[in-house]
Amino acid sequence: MKSGIDRSKIDELLRLFSTAIATTKLYSLEHEQVQKQIYRIQQCLNTLFKQQGELTFMIVKKELLFEGTPLEQTLHCERIARSLHHRNIGYFSITKGVDNSEIELFIDVACGNQSADQLETSAPHIDYGEIDIKDDPDAILAIARFEDLSREELASIKTLYDKIADKENFDLHRISSIISGFVTAFQQECNPLLALVPLKIEDEYSFAHSINVAILNIAQATSLGFGTDLLHDVGLAGMLHDAGKIFVDKEIIRGTHQLSDAEWQEIKKHPTRGAQYLMGQDGVPQIAILTAFEHHMRYDMTGYPTPPSTWQLNLCSQMTMISDTFDALRTRRAYNEPWDLPRISGRMLEVAGSQLNPCLTMNFLKLLKGCGDKIMTDGLELSAEAPHLSEEELNKRCVCE
Ligand SMILES: [Fe+2]
Ligand SMILES: [Fe+2]
Q1: What DSSP assignment string belongs to 259-306?
Q2: Which ligand is nearest to the CA of 324?
Q3: Gap from CA of 76 to ligand 2 centroid (Å)
Q4: Residue 81, CB half-sphere, CA atoms under 13 Å: how many?
Q5: What is the pLDDT of residues 97-116, one digit of tens each?
Q6: What are phi and psi of 245, to 5 degrees?
Q7: Closest ligand (CA of 271)
Q8: Quick one: which ligand is closest to 325's CA?
Q9: Range(s) of the chain covered by CATH 1.10.3210.10
Q10: pTM (2 decimals)?
Q11: In CATH terms, is domain 137-399 a member of 1.10.3210.10?
């Protein structure tokens, strides 16, 4: 606690905030009782600002801290900490000059009626920061074992995914928490590719594909010894790699027929559109933007979009291309039969060194081999017989499913 600040006034301020939040949840911001609290908050702040021009609070593990020091865990502190934690707010500071409308907005955000982003534009005297999901184990979606992922959990993940599909601003924090859950599960599960089993949802190919590519990316990165932060970002990059497909006609994506040349040209735009879209979203790691852009640029620099001759592919894009190819080949689509594991491995070996990075491909195939018979028989539910496809069909299928 900094010297000179009146501790009892801080307690009073928090009591007033807490009461205002509770009353707003019951009634509304305009209610007389809430307005009375806001007036008193303003009075209390005025007194405190005479002692200090800025007041900073943090929320750590759902506990409230004032300037780095834990506060007594009263009901009021708990309520404020819980409300802000739910809005992903990790700290906030209020500076001298704050007015009633800014305080109202802060309370509305704490109640979940408005998004925290609003504070950035409409509350110049209230600063806040988000909880970093990677540093907050409480926020990680608890998946003890992949097989435990219930249909309900899948449905809730899908709701988040649909926000991307609807081109809404998506909730990166929640998506991050899912990815962190996968990373945690990988650290506990010896056979992570079993994760692919419960993620097959009929008619939800794009969603299942994104989750699977995330999981396969994390599997690759884990085997390569990546640290937790990078594992997280590589998983997130996998989850978002095809984000640009939201700008492509759904009928083309659904893939119920062989694509015409015009449709194929349309599909080829999805890496660029995806990268542009992700650039406009707050907090998306650069590696995910780059991966969305590069994941169809092949190892030999054919593929699309066509890069300058000196272009160097980042490792995550090359890993994503491997995960992408594998998931495309093993999945049944309307006009494509799924392949069995030996045939997939054979095909991947064939294109290692041209389409795919050969070292990463070998590493990936070793991973698959390590999964043993269970994956072969019931894990991936692959067909025993794979149909013969022309080279042209294969190339389309490998790189863009
Ligand atoms: Fe793609
Ligand atoms: Fe893909």
Answers
A1: PPHHHHHHHTTHHHHHHHHHHTSTT--HHHHHHHHHTTB-TTS-BSSP
A2: 2
A3: 48
A4: 19
A5: 999 999 999 999 988 788 88
A6: -70, -15
A7: 1
A8: 2
A9: 137-399
A10: 0.61
A11: yes
